[in-house]
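Look at one record.

>
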Amino acid sequence: MAQKKLTRHQLKEDSFVTFWLNAWEYIRERQTQAFVVFIALVVIVAGSVWMKNSRAKARDTARTQFAEAIAAFGTGELRTAEEMFKIVTERFENMEEGVFAIYFTGKCELLDGRNSLAIESFEKYLRDMGKHTFFQDAAREGLATAYDNERNYARAAEIYLELAENTTVNHFLEKDYLKKAAETLKLSDQNEKAIQVYEKLLELSTGLERRDVELELAILRG
């Protein structure tokens, strides 16, 4: 016996068939809109892939140029290194390499005797470093050194004391910072504060180092 053909009414009673008929009708009525949505999704996905690849390429370029600047710095080519660090900062200011390059720009300027420019660079790094804090203590020490070189001993002493009391990385340099703070306090005629710092340093010192501190205290106390 030949199979009886299902009527449209019987087809509508089949829920599975009804679902696909309705879905097809919906798509057919909105095919233009669906195509636009599809194209939009393609553009979004393609854009995401492009941005990811672009960021990866930029990071590789930043690392390469930063490494080249570090190499020039390591061989003593300060002016060349400085220019290279400035380029890295300009091109990749929001990346780790771009932020670190600000610190090294200040380091080049400090080693080249341009203390006022070094101060500006170190302050810029400390202001803009965000989460890239690895050179925070080094930048503060560079600031203190530059102020010391400029004979602004009071400001240098202030920074050295801050470093001694609150270092983020260089905790092992506490005694060195205290000693430099005491020396710059003396040079700025703040003998009472210098005595206080030497007394604290005395507690941390032993052997010949302790004897030197005792001598400094004896001189300051008269």
Remarks:
- The chain has a mean pLDDT of 84.
- The chain has eleven helices and no strands.
- Residues 37 and 174 are 63 Å apart (CA to CA).
